[in-house]
């Protein structure tokens, strides 16, 4: 089995369910509040593990973050490369979720912002050529991690979320698989809403590109082809971990040499199940649940060229 290293964020998610996302100058009351283990990194590691992949998580928490490490261990994720920062708190996210399941998020990175180049080098030295490094944009030194992993011959998968201006300066030509939503993709090419989004993005990345579009499905592109699959029809409760679930399942399926179409369908099914449940990590389905879902649900193929 190909080993997957996820160098990613670890957060405490504080979720407030509201009638609508708060506007500037407005005060609203939450219907409910809850706290969960989260962070895009943690979510994607759990999705990988529940999809059956062998996952190593590297990251940084504060002294208040032991429970997050325990949460990953419970999901059969190797956390031997997670460091505890003596001076910084664990990262946290404050998440509003409205009645349609849409969300707005404010993140305090905490210890995630103190991952050093030395820590990255130390972790990467435990991995070999052709193994996989997965990255998001919630930690420090992402550009360096891409460069260092590529130099060692690892396959780099990058989810540029949350999108920041710094992403434009990352060595994206060394990324083997970029998975972004439509907004993030537009920001990367510095032309939001561009009709030629796919070819422009492919020119930035020396590999494959996936653009997730929520209810409109997902687009996959490489140098030879473009493939689009529609989303499954479900009633959303919470979309917080939908993208993270898709990413984990897609990468896990690719390590099994599943054909691209199959990877997209399985990952889309996992994300569809996820949005019908509240929370982040706790909403991510198991591989058995995804298989059962697929026996009675199929996405509609839109484009294949």
TrEMBL record:
Under what name is this protein listed? Ribokinase
Give the pathway listed in the UniProt entry for this protein. Carbohydrate metabolism; D-ribose degradation; D-ribose 5-phosphate from beta-D-ribopyranose: step 2/2
Q: What is its main location?
A: cytoplasm
Q: Active site at which residues?
A: 244 (proton acceptor)
Q: Where in the cell is it found?
A: Cytoplasm
Q: Which residues cross the membrane?
A: none
Describe activity control.
Answer: Activated by a monovalent cation that binds near, but not in, the active site. The most likely occupant of the site in vivo is potassium. Ion binding induces a conformational change that may alter substrate affinity.
* Any one of the GO BP annotations: D-ribose catabolic process
Q: Which positions are annotated as binding K(+)?
A: 238, 240, 274, 277, 279
Question: What are the top taxonomic ranks of the organism?
Answer: Bacteria, Pseudomonadati, Planctomycetota, Phycisphaerae, Phycisphaerales
The top EC class, named as a word, is transferase
